[in-house]
Amino acid sequence: KMVGVHKVLHSWVRELSLGHNLLSRFPRGLPASLGSLQLHENHITYITSGSLRKLGNLTRLDLEYNHIRAIQPGALQALSKLRVLTLKGNKLTSVPGRLPTSLARLDLSENCISALDLPSLSSLVNLQSLKINSNRLRSVPGSAFDSLARLRSLDLANNLWACRCDILYLYRWLLSGGVRTAADIVCTEPTHLAHHVFITSPQAGAPTNPVPTFLEFLSREPTFLGVTTP
């Protein structure tokens, strides 16, 4: 297994797979011609701003199942052609800042993200698929997804959803557009609502919109949780 990469790659290489190795940092000396780079299942912990500066032709980058705790803000911004970014199974606690606006598919599942940063999301105007399931999200701030006009698939399952009045933004937003939810979204609190499904994923062949459940009642009767909404 590899622990480093020597600068012996030809300048015409378009695809490179370095997955299942022992790399502890982003490899240096990669050819600028690369369009697809797979670095899954290594030991990378940090991405610096200079790591990808010369890889402006990348359209696909796979970093899943590393040990990435942080990505320096703007480290991926120079990848103006990047369409697919996979960061599944790392140790990120927030959505990386200043991601390329060209992104169409972003996978942040199986991390430790506890909050959605509005500036990080609002710039992703070309995003079509977002996976942020299996994190530590408890709520979604109002307007979090409003700028994602092209989004068609969203996976929010297996988070720590607190089904209180501020969850209504997410509920109403999901029902207002053509976004498909990949799996049921389930409450974890308050205690009397734990394990209740508040959005059901449509079955194959069903309409794109998610299926409303008990929160349809909640939106009409905001005192259901002992709180009131305007």
TrEMBL record:
It comes from the Eukaryota. The keyword Repeat applies. It holds the Pfam family LRR_8. This is Si:ch211-191d15.2. SUPFAM superfamilies: L domain-like. Keywords: Leucine-rich repeat, Repeat. InterPro entries: Leu-rich_rpt (IPR001611), Leu-rich_rpt_typical-subtyp (IPR003591), LRR-bact_E3_ubiq_ligases (IPR051071), LRR_dom_sf (IPR032675). PANTHER family: LEUCINE-RICH ALPHA-2-GLYCOPROTEIN-LIKE, PTHR47114.
